[in-house]
């Protein structure tokens, strides 16, 4: 990866019509002062196989629900690379074809929404394979939908994954999601305005330059930036049964940090207006702030002459949040499972994974692909250590909604940190 200086006969008929309608709608590293990423190298593509009018009786066509970004297409760099990867797969496996069905990544009509609807109305229409945000996999557990990858994927492929990333796709010892890419959150700063980026809250207080991060919430759910600070202090979010399990004292500390910095000015007054990392990156690019929380994808796709560092935490503990997507297997048919595993293994080969990561701006989830995708040694080591210290969001939207209300109440002056904490604890218990 080039581096940047980031869904009775009548009831059955009705159910079928509903589904058809639905489907049709659709560690701390020493910061590098500047990061300069050379252009991504051209990706060699296998020649397009000549179309054949004959389909062998043994041929399998798998259905893959995924996002537009993962669809083979000549219109985007990532789509073009996916075209090459898929052509190579078809040449090596002429008896297996993939039908790519695009869906929205989130929300109504998104991947999770369609999966839950189809499983309830007509499970026989579920796809063989899906790419999904790993934070949503928890919603599928207990639906008797997910098939484990264990025994289908060679152990050396799973062993090449970063341990924390592999763990994020596992449940009770079974590998249920095979990661395909990662994005992490870290600091970027202007080295002409900031000599040394803050590592702790105390160092941040001593800076005269405001710090910016999204605090407006993503669709009413608290931003990762808040969860990073809470988890870095040893806070918990859910217990072993998956129930909310927050620590009030830790929550109050983070809310006090937000309030104090907001009132004193070392946390930018614009944070409540920022809903995503895209917003904070845009503000940083415009020169509106000298340091901001952004995604690694921003640097890898758009950054130039940009300095980076770990996010400042209370005690300087290295912490970040990883947003990870992966493949989940739904088909219970052993023959189709084997075919799906062949495709996933092909995509996860270090060369293919690195090529797609370079074109898409995501980080690969395996050690070998990371070595191939990022040429700059300093940044590669930096993101590797960040990945190894990454946290993951729980599949509990009620937690995120309650925490976001607390952030808004505190920064708006409608509640003290302690009162906001009490309201969160009461709402979740």
Shape: globular
In round numbers, the mean pLDDT is 87
Total beta strands: 11
Tell me the number of structural domains. Answer: 2
CATH domain fold name of the largest domain? D-Maltodextrin-Binding Protein, domain 2
Over all CA atoms, what is the radius of gyration?
23 Å
Q: How would a textbook summarize the main sheet?
A: 9 strands, mixed
Give the SSE string: HEHEHEHHEEEHEHHHEHEEHHHHEHH
Walkthrough of the structure:
The chain is built from 16 helices and 11 strands. By secondary structure, it is of the alpha/beta class. The protein has 2 domains: 18-46 and 58-182 and 323-391, D-Maltodextrin-Binding Protein, domain 2 (3-Layer(aba) Sandwich), CATH 3.40.190; 185-322 and 394-428, D-Maltodextrin-Binding Protein, domain 2. The strands form 2 sheets. Strands 1, 2, 3, 6, 7, 8, 9, 10 and 11 form a 9-stranded mixed β-sheet that branches. It has a two-stranded antiparallel ribbon with strand order 4-5. Helix 2 (77-92) runs antiparallel to helix 12 (350-360) and helix 8 packs antiparallel against helix 16. It is globular, with a radius of gyration of 23 Å. Residues 1-33 and 36-57 have low confidence and may be disordered.
């Amino acid at each position: 990866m080039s581096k940047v200086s980031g869904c009775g006969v009548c009831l059955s008929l009705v159910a079928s019509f509903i589904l058809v309608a639905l489907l049709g709608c659709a560690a701390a590293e020493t910061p590098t002062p500047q990061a300069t990423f050379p252009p991504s190298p051209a990706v060699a593509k296998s020649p397009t196989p000549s179309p054949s009018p004959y389909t062998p009786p043994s041929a399998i066509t798998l259905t893959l629900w995924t996002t537009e970004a993962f669809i083979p297409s000549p219109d985007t760099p990532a789509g073009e690379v996916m075209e090459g990867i898929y052509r190579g797969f078809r040449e090596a496996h002429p008896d297996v074809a993939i039908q790519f069905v695009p869906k929205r990544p989130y929300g109504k009509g998104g991947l999770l929404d369609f999966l839950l609807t189809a499983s309830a109305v007509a499970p026989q229409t579920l796809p063989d394979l899906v790419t999904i945000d790993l934070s949503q996999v928890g919603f599928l557990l207990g639906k008797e939908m997910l098939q484990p990858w264990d025994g289908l994927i060679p152990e050396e492929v799973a062993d090449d994954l970063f341990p924390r990333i592999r763990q994020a796709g596992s449940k009770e010892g079974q590998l249920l999601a095979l990661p395909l890419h990662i994005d992490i959150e870290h600091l970027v700063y202007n080295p002409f305005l900031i000599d040394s980026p803050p590592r702790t809250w105390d160092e941040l207080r001593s800076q005269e330059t405001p710090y910016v991060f999204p605090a407006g919430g993503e669709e009413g759910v608290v931003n990762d930036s808040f969860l990073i600070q809470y988890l870095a202090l040893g806070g918990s979010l859910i217990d072993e049964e998956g129930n909310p399990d927050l620590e009030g004292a830790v929550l109050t500390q983070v809310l006090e940090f937000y309030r104090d910095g907001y009132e004193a000015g070392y946390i930018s007054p614009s944070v409540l207006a920022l809903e995503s990392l895209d917003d904070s990156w845009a503000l940083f690019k415009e020169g509106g702030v000298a340091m901001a929380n952004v995604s690694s994808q921003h640097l890898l796709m758009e950054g130039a002459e940009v300095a980076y560092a770990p996010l400042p935490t209370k005690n300087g503990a290295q912490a970040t949040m990883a947003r990870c997507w992966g493949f989940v297997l739904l088909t219970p048919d052993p023959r189709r499972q084997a075919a799906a595993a062949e495709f996933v293994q092909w995509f996860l080969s270090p060369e293919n994974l690195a090529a797609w990561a370079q074109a898409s701006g995501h980080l690969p989830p395996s050690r070998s692909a990371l070595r191939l995708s990022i040429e700059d040694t300093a940044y590669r080591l930096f993101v590797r250590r960040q990945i190894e210290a990454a946290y993951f969001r729980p599949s509990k939207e009620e937690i995120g909604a309650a925490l976001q209300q607390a952030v808004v109440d505190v920064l708006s002056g409608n509640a003290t940190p302690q009162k906001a904490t009490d309201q969160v604890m009461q709402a979740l218990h």
